[in-house]
């Protein structure tokens, strides 16, 4: 599977492509033999621009594997503007679902950072974060986006 990686302020990130779409972002350097494509080069360029504060919205073809509910949660997370946050309950109300399944779907997000699960918080705190570094990485991403006023 074609993949490409970058070193970012939150550690190594690896984009994975399949059939002309980004399907996963993992928190590691890939195994040897990366087969970079035009899409992966664009994805890496957009990630670099995001971390350089030069990009507000990613514009990449994404395919979220999983149930229809997982896809709806990822679409709702993608609609949260840079520098803003929502709670699991906010998304649950928007989707007509309970907060716990929304939280589970956020934790199963296959394309973190690009699909901004870090922008979703618990009702009484940060909530969890499944990426490398856990909640500290979530805080770093929120600070990077200027959404950290609530964290200070």
TrEMBL record:
InterPro entries: MethylDNA_cys_MeTrfase_AS, MethylDNA_cys_MeTrfase_DNA-bd, MethylDNA_cys_MeTrfase_DNAb, MethylG_MeTrfase_N, MGMT, MGMT_N_sf, WH-like_DNA-bd_sf. Keywords: Cytoplasm, DNA damage, DNA repair, Methyltransferase, Transferase. Its EC number is 2.1.1.63. CDD domains: ATase (cd06445). It catalyses: a 4-O-methyl-thymidine in DNA + L-cysteinyl-[protein] = a thymidine in DNA + S-methyl-L-cysteinyl-[protein]; a 6-O-methyl-2'-deoxyguanosine in DNA + L-cysteinyl-[protein] = S-methyl-L-cysteinyl-[protein] + a 2'-deoxyguanosine in DNA. Residues 68-147 form the Methylated-DNA-[protein]-cysteine S-methyltransferase DNA binding domain. One of its GO terms (cellular component) is cytoplasm. GO terms for biological process: DNA alkylation repair; methylation. One of its GO terms (molecular function) is methylated-DNA-[protein]-cysteine S-methyltransferase activity. The active site is at 117 (nucleophile). Residues 4-62 form the Methylguanine DNA methyltransferase ribonuclease-like domain. The keyword DNA repair applies. It is found in: Cytoplasm. Belongs to the MGMT family. Involved in the cellular defense against the biological effects of O6-methylguanine (O6-MeG) and O4-methylthymine (O4-MeT) in DNA. Repairs the methylated nucleobase in DNA by stoichiometrically transferring the methyl group to a cysteine residue in the enzyme. This is a suicide reaction: the enzyme is irreversibly inactivated. This enzyme catalyzes only one turnover and therefore is not strictly catalytic. According to one definition, an enzyme is a biocatalyst that acts repeatedly and over many reaction cycles. This is Methylated-DNA--protein-cysteine methyltransferase.
